[in-house]
Design a protein that fits this description.
Layout lengths: L20 H34 L3
Length: 57
């Protein structure tokens, strides 16, 4: 019967880790999407303000 690890776990955990580069690419894509969404929202608000100001003319 195999020995238990010294910290009390039943099975030893794998030390395999995924590559970090895919996480960085995902972070960049999310940041870019959020930035574009904020810019689009600001453009929409500016357009609505312009429409309200120019409406009576």
């Amino acid at each position: 019967m195999p020995e238990q690890p010294p910290d009390g776990r039943v099975f030893a955990m794998s030390t395999h880790r995924s590559r970090r580069s895919s996480v960085r690419l995902t972070d960049r894509a999310v940041t870019l999407a959020l930035t574009l969404a904020v810019l689009a929202g600001l453009g929409w608000v500016a357009g609505m303000i312009y429409t309200l100001l120019a409406w009576p003319l």
